[in-house]
């Protein structure tokens, strides 16, 4: 590949990147569903959205761990975009959460997600977890998505949390992005 071809590709990527950044000008949560799959192990104390204004919605949840400490956690994150129903879009990652928290840069999408999630939660350390998992008043901002190619539309992010090789909870977060 010659220098001119590399230049053309880099120019295209830069223009696409700038367009992507401009695409996400407004974003908000539209729905939230939390399901505990193993209630003797853990359950949700609350899982709610609160409208702060027309374009601002805050997400809060508390996942009560009833059998602590938890030393082995798994995480599956999958994103969907709405096209005649929700279709898989961009990401489907399953990882050992304890390893991820030690080496966040290995999975770029989750690293970007946790950079803004850590400010609103107590999920800021590696295993073991011996306390409730709390996310308090998380508000989506367009700047959080400047590194991701996310066009306008309706989205669902499905987060499945497991411990000791068994899925324990599912959280579906719905959001809308528009220009």
From TrEMBL:
Pfam families: DUF1091 (PF06477). Keywords: Signal. InterPro entries: DUF1091. Residues 1-23 form the signal peptide. This is (Mediterranean fruit fly) hypothetical protein. It comes from Ceratitis capitata (Mediterranean fruit fly).
